[in-house]
Amino acid sequence: MIVFNSVTKKFGSAAALEDVSLEIKQGEFVFIVGPSGAGKSTLLRILTREILPTSGKVMVGHEDITKIKSASVPNFRRKIGVVFQDFKLLDDRTVFENVALTLEVQGKTDSEISKMVEHTLKLVEIWDKRNLFPRQLSGGEAQRTAIARAIVGKPDIVLADEPTGDLDPKTAWGVIQLLNEINSWGTTIVMATHNQEIVNTLKRRVIKLKAGKKSADTKEGKYD
Question: Record's InterPro entries (predicted)?
């Protein structure tokens, strides 16, 4: 599903990632951990083709994403849903409209959009908030909206970059339980996090980065 083969990413002379090799299989739930500056966000940005590695090869499915032409990047990104710590919702659109935007970009019909958004908002339990704007939502509701936007197009992979960072512990666990359920459908989840309690409780695979290098890869790991 995802393969990094000797991937290095430099910004100027500084290496954000250095000779990183890893493989994530379809349907896995993987935590990417490490201190600030370890390279977690850089790894995720490479996976979305926001940035390209300086050297090395990155495979997603059967595609070498370092060789995808710029015109084909939007089509590639349909395979990936992304959840951010700061939600990145559009303030001038309602919950329904924020989630619908993903499908509009994909060229879905109004009927398809209506059905798919309703189904997804009910799934993440915020259908009753569909006509509210982001400023009217709690942190947990905003994150559930962001998750709905990420999964409404039925991506193969969901990338989550510190999705619980700004949430209280109870709300954070609700978000994790939702991601866990999405993973149970066969969706691959790759989550960068500093949350030791969540990592240690779930006992999923843990890939640890340190100073841009992979320092550990444990099947049922903990956040040391």
Answer: AAA+_ATPase, ABC_transporter-like_ATP-bd, ABC_transpr_LolD-like, Cell_div_FtsE, P-loop_NTPase
